[in-house]
Design brief:
The protein has five helices and no strands. The protein has two domains: 82 residues; 69 residues, no CATH class. By secondary structure, it is mostly helical. The C terminus is likely disordered.
């Protein structure tokens, strides 16, 4: 019986040693997994923080560009709407000169009205087709000689 107890004690001792060995190994594996999970959580948190700051920066930049675009659009429309002061002054001087010619020159009024109607019609035509597109972007200069030649042909 004594050898039986010694055998059971040896077997029990081996079982305890193996169980302690595996429990230590299991706890070290758990610690490794826990540290690895913590490392991945930290990496994910850093990545999310970087991406969220990048996205918020992009949103702010996008909003700023949108506001700038809207301001430029409004400015462009406003500039299209109102002519410059020099153009208005020149137009007023030309209108005054035309009015004086109509009053002082008896044959000027009918010729002036015909020329004005032709110019208005030509101006209307500048808003349709390829030639108007070119005329708007490449203005043709007229010289005094061309104006005299043109008026001479019409019999003035």
């Amino acid at each position: 019986m004594n050898s039986f107890l010694v055998g059971i004690a040896c077997g029990l001792a081996v079982a305890i040693i193996v169980s302690v060995y595996f429990s230590v190994k299991l706890s070290s594996l758990r610690k490794e997994k826990k540290t690895e999970v913590e490392k991945y959580k930290n990496m994910l948190a850093e990545r999310m923080e970087i991406e969220s700051s990048g996205v918020s920066r992009l949103k702010a930049e996008n909003e700023e560009l949108r506001k700038t675009n809207e301001n430029l659009r409004v400015s462009l429309l406003a500039m299209r709407e109102k002519p410059g002061r020099k153009e208005l002054e020149r137009l007023q001087v030309m209108q005054t000169a035309a009015d004086r010619l109509v009053l002082n020159s008896p044959g000027f009024a009918p010729v002036w009205q015909a020329a004005l109607k032709e110019s208005e019609e030509e101006f209307r035509k500048t808003y349709s087709g390829l030639m108007p597109f070119l005329k708007r972007h490449i203005p043709l200069k007229t010289s005094d000689a061309q104006l005299i030649d043109d008026s001479g042909e019409s019999g003035v």
